Amino acid sequence: MQNKISTPGALLDDSGNLLQVGWSPQPLLDSNLEKANFYQMKFLQSLRLKRWDYYGITTPTHFFSFTISDIGYLGMIFAYVIDFNKKTHHEETIALPFASGVQIARNSTEGISRYANNKVSLVFNKLSEQRVLSVSWKNFENNQDLNAEITISEKPEHESMNLVIPIETKRFYFNRKINCMPASGWVEYLGQKHAIKPENCLANLDWGRGVWSYESFWVWASSSGFLSDGRHIGLNMGYGFGDTSKATENAFVLSDRIQKLGEIKFHYDSGNFMSPWKMISDDERLNLTFAPFFERVAKTDLKVLNSEVHQMFGKYSGSLVSDEGEKINIDNLIGFAEEHHARW
User: Fold this and answer.
1) Pick from 226, 176, 221: nearest CA to 197
2) Which phi and psi (to 5°) does residue 165 adopt?
3) What letter would DSSP give residue 320?
4) pLDDT score of 304 more than 70
5) 3-state DSSP assignment of residue 17
6) What is the helix (H) or strand (E) element at residue 259, kind and residue range?
């Protein structure tokens, strides 16, 4: 069921078909989206391509998130901050018709994604073993600026969840999720400079490319943190759109190594997202309870295009079993789980 891709190559052939379907622990495929071929009227195809780089930084007290995206009809630039102790959140978003001014790197392994105007500047630069984030957002909250300079370490041996699956005819999801990358630097928020230190701060990246159905739904759950013995532990789980018969995105990361999982059943109440969630893998190697303590709601309604996200921040507890058979106890690991409906 879990088809592992092991051969480097292109994502699409000359007719726009996926050349390989499955997952891999390292990025192997070139994102040649220029070969996408799903409309007879070629000039419309660029309006259906979706590309984004979403970074999150988990600290002991906050979650800082920065995104540059081009979803075809629009560019969406946004940043938000979750304060774990105060149970508060602030978010700012810029919507750009036809993604004017947005630059997105071709692949996750190199290049620069950026956007800048007279108020906002976001630059994400992938270097050999680092990712450097530079953020400046004037008057972000209470007439105070949000600024950040963060260096994220990404060793070559650090494994990630790379997924390629089809969505209906000639549509597809090409994604890389990286958890547990040590982060250093600083974030200036509400006049306070927060030190980002690798001994207690970890970054995650959601790097997405593809062509979705107009109406889409997904659930995604993630965490990057530490075990009691100091080892890094990361979670990446999800379901919703696409044909997952060859591979799911479900995995956990233990000390830089991907531990691949198959299907995971989610049990939660969409009428009360704050009630506990339950996640259990089909082989019972993952058995977790997620207890939310804060709900972030993000809505965009442009009539033809709309999106609604309920992203819950909370604590994971339960157990995992590694490929080697080690049982790992999880206790109050901070992370998030979200439900997302979109027409885009």
Assistant:
1) 226
2) -140, 150
3) E
4) no
5) coil
6) strand 257-260
* Spatial separation of the C-alpha atoms in residues 143 and 128, rounded to whole Å: 37
Instruction: State how far the Cα of 279 lies from the Cα of 265, in Å rounded to an integer.
Output: 6
Q: Check pLDDT > 80 for residue 39.
A: no
For all residues of the chain together, what is the average pLDDT?
Answer: 95
Q: What is the pLDDT of residue 213?
A: 82
How many CB atoms neighbour CB 295 within 10 A?
Answer: 15
Domain boundaries, the chain: 19-24+44-343
The tokens 């409906």 sit on which residue? 341
Q: pLDDT band at 200, cuts 50/70/90? A: very high
Q: Rounded to two decimals, what is the model's pTM? A: 0.96
**Segment 225-233 long-range contacts (CB within 8 Å, at least 24 positions apart):** 225/58, 225/180, 225/333, 225/334, 225/335, 226/200, 226/202, 227/328, 228/331, 231/255, 232/179, 232/180, 232/202, 232/256, 233/180, 233/320, 233/328, 233/330, 233/333
